[in-house]
Amino acid sequence: MDEFHLSKERVGAAFAQGSKYDSLPQFVCDLRLDYASKLLTTTDLSITEIMTKAGFSNASVFSRYFNRKYRISPSQYRRANKRQ
Predict the structure, then answer these.
(1) pLDDT tens digits, 3-40
(2) CA 11 to CA 24: how far, in whole Å?
């Protein structure tokens, strides 16, 4: 942004215009949730460890966003999708 003298608002607007996401933070959150879902099905890490590795610092926020995207809690997702 500094190199091209663009404001964060301008970058965010350009991103929103060229993607299915309304904002850059929404895109980042979605990437974090995708990563968390992968960890839930491929590791035995605790949900708290997964939440932290995915970049969330608050368990209730993580659970709310996860549930909003997948329509299921992280623990239910793990049970339903655990790879053997």
Answers:
(1) 877 787 887 777 777 778 887 888 899 999 999 999 99
(2) 9
Q: Phi and psi of 54, rounded to 5°?
A: -80, -5
**Could you tell me the two tokens for 64?**
């709310």
| Phi, psi of 58, deg, nearest 5 | -130, 120
What length does the chain have?
Answer: 84
d(CA 41, CA 50): 11
* Overall average pLDDT of the 64-72 stretch: 97
- Give the separation between CA 28 and CA 26, rounded to whole angstroms: 5
The mean of the pLDDT values for the chain is 90
Structure pTM? 0.81
Measure Cα distances from 61 to 42, 57, 68, 69, 80 in Å. Answer: 22, 8, 10, 12, 22
